[in-house]
Amino acid sequence: MPNIIDGRAVAEKVYVDLRGEIAGLKSKGITPGIAVVLVGDDPASRAYVRSKDKMSRELGLHSVKLELPESTSQNELLARVDELNRDPAVHGILVQSPPPKQIDETAIVRALNPAKDVDGFHPLNVAKLAMGDSTGFVPCTPLGVQRLLIESKIEIAGAHVVVLGRSMIVGKPVALLLMQKAQGGDATVTVVHSRSKDLEAITRSADILIAAIGRAHFVKASHVREGAVVIDVGINRIEDKNDKRGYRLVGDVAFDEVAPKAKAITPVPGGVGPMTIAMLMANTVKAARQSI
Ligand code: NAP
Whole-structure pTM over 0.85, yes or no? Predict the structure, then answer.
């Protein structure tokens, strides 16, 4: 049987480490602070914001939850971001995606103080990741994937990592992170996407396969080499009449057929998901530390 990588357990370990660091900062008079901004009332976004706020409070962070109406204009949102940029009690700012259609998300991200951009999407932080400058902020999901691999004692250096997907949120940053000349990096990385030829032959050559495409059960046993490590970032809803919500969440990997071939694999839910919030908390603590 493969090793099932338990993201909840690794996230708990991250929180234990963070609690120690937060206590140290508080003893110096600094309470790390995070502001999460939600525009509109998308139920999924609301649930994400609630769980981020809950976790921040559990860790004893200063947590600001800013809920703005669906009709909020670009200028109103920019004004609120500016206030948070200047608020010394707030070390990290996150504007929940996706915002309503009148909002230009790219402009909002660019308006963030890069030193408070704990999501790691500001161009300065993207550049720092590409340059290997560790003072920058790396997006939370890629950072969580790397931490899962490290905590599971999976050798990254020299491994052939194949990343399925090239988004700015997951695919590109996870590729940059794992190829860095640094601890937790040094992998040989191939990125495949919707225009790649011979996709299956490429994924089959992976020692570590990271799936981030948003297609339920796309990765089949035929995509995976015997003994590979499989990290499933995907979160997809599929209809399930047996579930009281009428749907359930599944990954990009057909878990039941891939797991028997894998050396280690993450489940969905309970794999990468819990790491994303844990890394948001870690980035906020880092922002507070770097503010000194
Ligand atoms: P995205 O922005 O939609 O990007 C998907 C990528 O997959 C694109 O690069 C696309 O290629 C590629 N792709 C789509 N269909 C493909 C196919 N049939 N063959 C090959 N490549 C294909 O998605 P994302 O934001 O990166 O998210 C990916 C998944 O991760 C989603 O299920 C999302 O919900 C999940 N996610 C989970 C977390 C977490 O905390 N666990 C965080 C973020 C995202 P092109 O570029 O050629 O279009």
Answer: yes
